[in-house]
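ok trying this again, last paste got cut off
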Amino acid sequence: MPTTFALLAALTLSAPPLTPPAAAQCPGLFRLDWVGTNGVPGGEALDEPTRFDIALNASGELGMASWLHVPSDIDPTDAVVTVGPFGEGDGLVNIVDPRGIGAMNGRMGGVYEEACLSIDATATGGWVYCGRFSFDVSGEYCANFDPFGGEHNRCVYGPRDNYGSWVTVLDHRGRHQYTKLFAGDGDLFARAAARVPDGYVFSGFIDGTVDLDPGPGEAWFTSIDESRDAFLLRLDAQANYEWAVAIGNWRQDEGEQLAVDFDGNLYWLGRFSQTVDFDPGPGVDEHTSISGSDMFISKYTSDGAYQWTRTVNTNQTHSGTTLDFYDNKVLVAGGFSDRVDFDPTAGVDERRSAGEGDAYLSMWTSGGDYLWTRTWGGADGFDAAKAVFNPAGDIIVSGGFTGNVDFDPGAGMDVRSSSVGLNAFITKYSNAGEYQWTQTFGPPDSAWVYRMAYHKPTDELWLDGLFMGTVDFDPGPGEAMRTSVGERDLFLMKMRCAGGGCAELTGHSATGRSSKASATVTTTLPSGKAAVRLCDDAGNTIATKKKTITADGSASVTFKRLRRGMYWLTVTQLKDADGRKVCRGEFLERRVEVR
């Protein structure tokens, strides 16, 4: 078995700043900074490395957690570094320079199968990874968990035929610090990692009897009736055991996402079936699923004290794909189908999907009180793959869509179309859930976003996903064409704030009706004028109208005698009561259909 790993590509990574720069605020759209792609030349779908998670450290470097199972180009930038796994599959580690000029690429593993499933940045700018390994041995299983040239073997002793998990910490230069293994007589999947004050927290599922203490001590947990139970595990900064909980019933219960607030409280998202007591202590807090698998959100203090659980039936197996926290608010995004009541308290907030599946965005307080939900979609269905808070507390959502989708969840309209396959989208909402704008990319073929990371100090957005065929990755007027080398390839792109926002412009609701298109602009101005431009779907200007801003800060415009088709309505100018131009440019464009 190989005992060392080659450094496949190297660059000097800067030490993290002791004090991150003040958070920026981006009022406008994003522009493409760079994009890189990688895949398997001539490969089929599923041959490409499987990425599971991405994260940013304080210096703006991106860490990636993946699984490598066939020879492939593993460098996420435009460099080409082709290698294969040592055994049945390796944990793949990438650390990407924020300028896109290079990456450190390495593998963790041995002769069996390992996979990196999650990553987060450490307090000092390094990286904490977790993943799973499989083994079928009567004696000794060993693997090297140093991805960048060193030799740090860890072993588990048989006889065993199941899955275990591991935790590895690297410093800010990618140097191995330590690795801890978890195993038992059953399966253990650690699939989510997050940094907390003075330590780390992990989540996933257990199936059977496992020891969640990676040190010399023991912390045995047994799932109910040999089924999957969700677990939550807290380790200190040296990966020593502090506490763990497991919840479940005789069906499939799994922990999937984690978020941490400034006090170190933990927010835990997952799915459950049947009736489950979510209070791991002497108390009882039972919830019963409505469909086969419902979503749960639970809160724990930093020392493991149970706080509350909320559950929602979204009629989908993997209903919650993202979890984030900002200013005492908890954000959840994902997909749902059919009819769903998103208010898990005594109230009712029922929504119905437009097609097979729609996207949703929900907000709760840190105390578990329900605030609001926004839903949007089309006849062909799609999910919100990821959502994050920006520095101002506004929300950026990304994913993929097909067909015609109205991205404005309110009374207005903003229809985007994907004529061939899937297109990727980036959408912004205010902290109160007000729709702001949408950008899309993907034609002429298909692209969709699976993961997203937001570097708040610099307002830089990273997107990671899959694409097929030839795709223009620039959502703006420029062009960034890439063609997949296999049936399906990976992409990684970084976007910067394009600027040009208008702080006085708070909203734009547009609609299309029979031979008419209307726009209502909302502002912070008590008077003045607003200008709205109407273009056809080819971008040709038809007319621009200016209307007086009323005392409530709004102005309404209607364009009449229009032919059937798609039209764009864009706010181009705001003037105050004295005629001074407050904002001039192109803001909050909307695409509507006139019938």
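PB: full thing came through this time. The first strand starts at residue 29 and ends at 38.
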